[in-house]
Amino acid sequence: MTQLAARLHFYVPVLLAFALWEAASQAGLIDPSIFPSLSSVLAAFVRLLTNNNLLKHAGISIFRQMSGFLLAGGIGIVAGILIATTAWARFAIEPVIRLVYPLPKSALIPLFILWLGIGDASKIGAIFLGALLPVVLSTYNSARGVNTALVWSAWSLGTPRLLIPWKVVLPAAMPEILSGLRIALALSFTLLVSAEFLISQEGLGYLISQLGENGDYPGMFAAVLAVTLIGVAADRGFLALRNWVLRWTEQ
Amino acid sequence: MDRAVKIAAPQPPFRLPPAAFALLRTAERSIPILVLLAAWEFATRAGMVQLFLLPPLSRVLVRFYADTIDGTIPYHIVQTSITALSGFFLAAAVGVILGAAMAVSRPVRYICEPLVSLAFPIPKISFLPIFILWFGFDVLPKVLMVAFNCVIPITSATYLGARGIDKYILWSARSLGTPHHKLFWKVVVPAAAPQVISGLQIALPQALIIGIVTEMLTGGDGLGSYMIRAVRFSDSETAFAGILAMLVTGLAYMQIAAMIRRHVLKWHTEAAAEG
Amino acid sequence: MSAARNDEERQRGGGTGIGMAFLEIEGVRKSYVIGQGRPFVAVDGIDLAIEQGEFVSLVGPSGCGKSTLLHMIGGFVPCTDGAIRVDGAAVREPGPDRGIVFQHFALFPWKTVRGNVEYGLVERGMSRAERADVAQRYIDMVGLSGFENSFPNRLSGGMQQRVAIARMLACEPQILLMDEPFGALDAQTRKIMQEELRALWQRFGKTVVFVTHDVREAVFLSQRVVVMSTRPGRIKAIVETGLGPDASRVAIDEKADQLWDMLRDEVVRAMAEERSKVQ
Question: Which domain holds residue C162?
Answer without folding.
Answer: 108-172
